[in-house]
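On clarity, I found the account of how folds are encoded harder to follow than it need be. What matters is that the chain and its backbone geometry are given together, residue for residue. I therefore recommend that a typical entry be quoted early in the introduction. An entry of this sort, consisting of the sequence and the corresponding backbone structure tokens, reads as follows:
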Amino acid sequence: MSQKQANVDLNEVAKFDALASSWWDLEGQSKPLHDLNPIRLAYIAERTSLKDANVIDVGCGGGILSEALAKSGAHVTGIDMGEMPLNIAKLHALEEGLTIHYQHITAEEMAAQNKEQYDAVNCLEMLEHVPDPASIISACAGLVKPGGDVFFSTLNRHPKAYLLAVLGAEYIMKMLPKGTHDYKRFIRPAELSAWCRQAGLKVKDVTGMNYNPLTRQFSLGNDVKVNYLIHCKKI
């Protein structure tokens, strides 16, 4: 196995393969992603022009964000190392009449083959599932054009995130399958920002994504203790 292929946790891939059949069930195990998607898309669309933009979704899974980006007018490529979610994504895009280029490839190899080809790069809810998140960040920086936009989202290694995203979401409210997240892999905003700077990205914004269990709705805000988005520019 090459170094570029090594940044894949097969156990994590297997978790999402197991979820593949219910990826587009709006009331199924992927419901949190569907609920989260509108505010993620709004955050991205507010900070970069999607119309006719060449955009890549790194760690696209079953294509929830990829389809939203395509419907916003972007030319979308989605990459993932899970074959089953990719098959679901391809089928669903076909059903929706969308042209999305899905590929089974690592971010590192994609960056080696497509240097500075994209106006915007999105890598959401993926960094906490790989052995070396800094390598993914570097690959995303390699994929984006100079002056282009890069977006990351992940979970903060903060006690509140353990309480809400692990104990609350997986064990109490059962919004996610048990074992979806490994708290040790959560990433503090300062750590993510440092990796972005090392990769030649300038951090423009950090915004929290918060969940209200009473209304069952997500919103953007200043609290980054659980889930957060980062917007960067390629220097």
Strands lie at 54-58, 75-80, 100-104, 118-124, 144-155, 201-212, 217-221, 227-234. The domain at 10-234 is CATH 3.40.50.150 (Rossmann fold). Residues 125 and 154 are 5 Å apart (CA to CA).
